Amino acid sequence: MAAGRGAAGLGAVWKVLGKRAEGVAPAVWARQMFTRSRIPKAVFQPRPGDHEKYGGDPEQPHKIHVVTRIKSVIGRPYWEKMIIHNLGLDKAHQPRLHKNIPSVNSKLKVVKHLIRIQPLKLPHGLPTEEEMSDTFLTSKGELIIRSRLKSVEQKEIKS
Q1: d(Cα 123, Cα 144) in Å, to the nearest integer?
Q2: Residue 65 DSSP SS3
Q3: pTM, rounded to two decimals
């Protein structure tokens, strides 16, 4: 009798799974069709004219990227959404700073069509600890230090 219940229970489970599998089949097909492994390797290789087009010196690269998301991730593959989230680019047009290292650069190459990458420019040099609170980042990737006037002590006027 226990074996009969088990067999009936499995039949009910297969019916439920059968209905779900029919509804999911197109999504599974699409995921298999557009997996990351099917993207050609040439997409991720640097092009020879990139340095002339975007500026920069390949001999002395900048140390920090200013990365801004400029396009939506709606309708993009799950791996691109995951990379955008891991880079902290959930909000559009909010710049984030990232190191110019191979592990970050490989992620940026995958989503390069959704983001804008600029070098961090320091026109006033590196800020000191006291000046850090008075800095802001422009849309051109420049870190500007706002200079504040320091109060001068009043001297007594003797007549």
Answers
A1: 7
A2: strand
A3: 0.59
